[in-house]
Design brief:
The chain has 131 residues and is mostly beta strands. Helices cover 0% and strands 48% of the residues.
């Protein structure tokens, strides 16, 4: 028999050629992995730039959910990569998010409305202190 395993938010997993015998338990083993289905997530990809348009490595990134009454709740944080890039993943669902980047004395924010599962892109330019 072939067995198919499904769970919302994950790719389908299949175990092939499983032998099933009457009145016997069959061990399916531990080699079934269900990978996250990116098609069920809200993905926020972005880049942080300086005034000259170059990516900023190591900028602190914070992401907050903004509620209808204007209150915010931090839901993620991290640092930009070598070329200023960052990436956050969340379960699907509509939300208003604020992404804030800070580095070397500069700070800036952008808000993004997210809804259905998709990739949402954000670019933030920081006016950095001259060194």
């Amino acid at each position: 028999y072939n067995f198919t395993f499904e769970k919302s938010g994950y790719a389908t997993g299949v175990k092939y050629n499983v032998e099933v015998k009457k009145n016997k338990e069959t061990d399916l083993g531990d080699r079934l992995f269900l990978t996250v289905d990116k098609g069920t997530q809200v993905i926020v990809n972005g880049s942080i730039y300086n005034q000259a348009g170059f990516g900023i490595n190591g900028a602190k990134i914070e992401i907050e959910r903004i509620s209808a009454d204007g209150k915010t709740r931090k839901i993620g944080s991290g640092y930009s990569g070598e070329f200023g890039e960052f990436n956050f993943r969340f379960p699907e669902g509509a939300a208003r998010l604020r992404v804030t980047a800070s580095a070397k004395g500069g700070s800036a924010s952008k808000e993004v409305e997210v809804g259905s599962p998709a990739i949402y892109r954000v670019a933030i330019t920081l006016n950095l202190e001259k060194q």
